[in-house]
Write a structure and sequence with these properties.
single chain; alpha+beta; 5-stranded antiparallel sheet; 3 helices; 13 strands; elongated
Amino acid sequence: MPRFCFLGQREVKHQVTRKHAQNKCPEVMQQLLKDGFHRDVLIKVNLGIFDEGIRSCTVATKVHLPKGLYVDPYELISLQKYNLTEALVISDNIDLEVPEYLATDISVLVYMKPDPECQSCFKALLPLHCRYHRPTKDDGRIFIVLKSPEILINCQKSFLSVDCLKETEIEVPCTQKSINMCYWDSLKLKTVKKLKLQIPVGFNHHLPLVCTGTLITTILCSSLILSSLCKHGHFFFVQGSL
């Protein structure tokens, strides 16, 4: 009996030690900037390693966007020109116009940059856009949950504890501009709260009013355009030869 008690205490001690080691793993912070349908999400990771060599590592974050959110590939290209955001869209072609109920999930790989205010920190800024949703019956708003991103690291030297690394490596491009593939370590993170985005939507009982108003506005605008063309426009009729 004492032997079994000893083994039990050893197992508990091992679990406590492992939990303590995981508490020292990198910590991720997400923050929403701006309001409305067009937002920015600031992602910051603190590796907790006070070694100057950590700056030689490449850190990236893999963001999984639900179908209610999307990124604009053309906007990402523009930001890349000004060295503001380096990101790769992993998913297939993104349709910017489809509503939420016809869209699919998107994965984006964002290459992070060292944070000048923190030696062991890296950060990235990703512009997000909200899709249009079906109208609701009563609330007039919905919430989209943005889960914690996946943090990847590529180092020539090992800085992190084995307890903070996942077992499998991930093969992704070495840099945003490179076609060469590298093997990245995926990090175990401290528990991160999910980020909620509140999106305003229309009401079902407003549908007849909106449709009627849209139709009347379209007819009035079309009539004004035709009236202006008939009054001020110059028309030339070309008679074709048979």
